[in-house]
């Protein structure tokens, strides 16, 4: 079952440099590159957020295995969390596309740190 259309050009699918993925709209820290892993989907996949409030989740109608995910600070729509579909048993998989921006390690700003 597909949840998103793939148009190609997803810039972070095979991107594994050290750094932080932030909300493209407000710059709030969402995911560390340490929680990113290679996955067969065309979108970047993560196992956990940086902060407990990095994202907000709500049930996806008619899809009990998925949650809609938005930025915990500004509400920008980010993608989905697929329950129990992570790299290890019991882990979830977060997937996102153009709603993320990457900040290389050492280039963090107060905006990317949510201050």
UniProtKB/TrEMBL annotation:
Database matches in InterPro entries: Met_Sox_Rdtase_MsrB_dom, MsrB_Met_sulfoxide_reductase, Mss4-like_sf
Record flagged with keyword Zinc: yes
GO biological process: innate immune response; protein repair
Catalytic activity: [thioredoxin]-disulfide + L-methionine + H2O = L-methionine (R)-S-oxide + [thioredoxin]-dithiol; L-methionyl-[protein] + [thioredoxin]-disulfide + H2O = L-methionyl-(R)-S-oxide-[protein] + [thioredoxin]-dithiol
SUPFAM superfamilies: Mss4-like
UniProt cofactor(s): Zn(2+)
Alphabetic keyword roster: Cytoplasm, Cytoskeleton, Immunity, Innate immunity, Metal-binding, Nucleus, Oxidoreductase, Selenocysteine, Zinc
Cellular component terms per the entry's GO annotation: cytoplasm; cytoskeleton; nucleus
Alphabetical list of Gene3D superfamilies matching this protein: Peptide methionine sulfoxide reductase (2.170.150.20)
EC code(s) of this entry: 1.8.4.12, 1.8.4.14
Domain MsrB: 1-105
Localisation: Cytoplasm, Cytoskeleton; Nucleus
Molecular function (Gene Ontology), one example: L-methionine-(R)-S-oxide reductase activity
PANTHER family: METHIONINE-R-SULFOXIDE REDUCTASE B1 (PTHR46755)
Job description of the protein: Methionine-sulfoxide reductase that specifically reduces methionine (R)-sulfoxide back to methionine. While in many cases, methionine oxidation is the result of random oxidation following oxidative stress, methionine oxidation is also a post-translational modification that takes place on specific residue. Acts as a regulator of actin assembly by reducing methionine (R)-sulfoxide mediated by MICALs (MICAL1, MICAL2 or MICAL3) on actin, thereby promoting filament repolymerization. Plays a role in innate immunity by reducing oxidized actin, leading to actin repolymerization in macrophages.
Entry similarity comment: Belongs to the MsrB Met sulfoxide reductase family.
UniProt-recorded name of the protein: Methionine-R-sulfoxide reductase B1
Organism encoding this protein: Pan troglodytes
């Amino acid at each position: 079952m597909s949840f998103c259309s793939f148009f190609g050009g997803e810039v972070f699918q095979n991107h594994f440099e050290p750094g932080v993925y932030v909300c493209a709209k407000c710059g709030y820290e969402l995911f560390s590159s340490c929680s990113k892993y290679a996955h067969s989907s065309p979108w970047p996949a993560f196992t956990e957020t940086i902060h407990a409030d990095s994202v907000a989740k709500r049930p996806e109608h008619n899809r009990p295995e998925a949650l809609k995910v938005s930025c915990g600070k500004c509400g920008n729509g980010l993608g989905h969390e697929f329950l129990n579909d992570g790299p290890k048993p019991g882990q979830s998989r977060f997937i996102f596309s153009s709603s993320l921006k990457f900040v290389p390690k050492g280039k963090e700003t107060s905006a990317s740190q949510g201050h």
